[in-house]
Amino acid sequence: MQSLVMDLRMLSRELSLYLEHQVRIGFFGSGMGLSLILGFSVAYACYYLSSIAKKPQLVTGGESFSRFLQDHCPVVTETYYPTVWCWESRGQTLLRPFIASKPPVQYRKECIKTADGGQILLDWFDNDHSKSYMDASTRPTILLLPGLTGTSKESYILHMIHLSEELGYRYHVWFFNNRGMAGRCLQTPRTYCCANTEDLETVINHIHSLYPSAPFLAAGVSMGGMLLLNYLGKMGQKTPLKAAATFSVGWNIFACSESLEKPLNWLLFNYYLTTCLQSSVNKHRHMFVKQIDMDHVMKAKSIREFDKRFTSVMFGYRTIDDCYTDASPNHRLKSVGIPVLCLNSVDDVFSPSHAIPIETAKQNPNVALVLTSHGGHIGFLEGIWPRQSTYMDRVFKQFVQAMVEHGHELSTM
Length: 413
Hints:
Elements: H1 2-22, H2 32-52, E1 57-60, H3 63-72, H4 89-99, E2 108-113, E3 119-125, E4 141-145, H5 155-165, E5 170-174, H6 198-210, E6 216-221, H7 223-235, E7 243-247, H8 253-260, H9 263-282, H10 294-297, H11 303-314, H12 320-327, E8 340-345, H13 358-362, E9 367-372, H14 391-406
Parallel strand pairs: 4-5, 4-6, 6-7, 7-8, 8-9
Antiparallel strand pairs: 1-9, 2-3, 3-5
Helix pairs in contact: 1-2, 5-14
GO molecular function: acetylesterase activity; monoacylglycerol lipase activity; phospholipase A1 activity; phospholipase A2 activity
Enzyme class: hydrolase
Protein name: Phospholipase ABHD3
């Protein structure tokens, strides 16, 4: 890297001298303007290559898992080059939903009932044209869990499916707020909470009952990853899942809330997400008025206030602190009993770096943390014009393929 920087600086000096003496373009009366632009560009390139583009930190609880990832998921050891003109955390977070393309994916919908009379909507991408796994009973199945306000139409979900379609896998997407969403009436006065994994367990058991012989994996993004980790921590090895991956998880909700309540983050993210949460429950307010003061809920100005007035009350917590303690996945990471890869960016304002459970991960041989220096929250944009796949997409594709095709090697290492 140092030699590359030196070469770039030498090139900059040589080109600047050439432009000053040979080029006359009328910019500031001489070629000096172009020379300054070139010099600035080279200086920025030096800064980018030395301070922005870096290899991720790989933290594992066992040498065997680390070797497995280096052999079969090499992207976690390669330098991540964030989009050169948009590498700052908030920029990456805000830009992705607007710039990312949305590959066409046709879903098949299924509605299943829960034990309490509620309904869960499932979106399937069956991939019936798979040439690698023509037998549907053994076709690898991936369960995808989007973020807090996400659905099966999110660009990152569509890219995960599109990139891996060629692998021949089948995908199932289950999204939050599914009870009462997609034009369906809410059957029971209940929505969701990261700590409550009953609906997720129902979905996982249902899928496994349909395809008991198929390799079964799961991936969760943001709040979907938090729910998935809490489920895995509770179940240990008693889960039909073979492996899992999470992306941009908030490890400690207290730290997440504190970060999102800083003025700029509140303005850019917190207030908008709060209004989304309020809108999602207000359309069914007649179901909640007997146990919750909905007028008070609709006056909440932050996610923490919403959770204090709505989520913690609905799920019977004595205080918001009890709710957040139970919902934070950092406490359950030590109990995860299957291979899990967790991708986070240390500049993610939704998940502060000091709250990432690095020491806990080192104590569990089933866990691998992949920590990038940049990437924001579900950003991980790369390339000059990042409309297509992201670094996150590539990590997902390589990891699920590695677990499906080579996962048996972990038991022999």
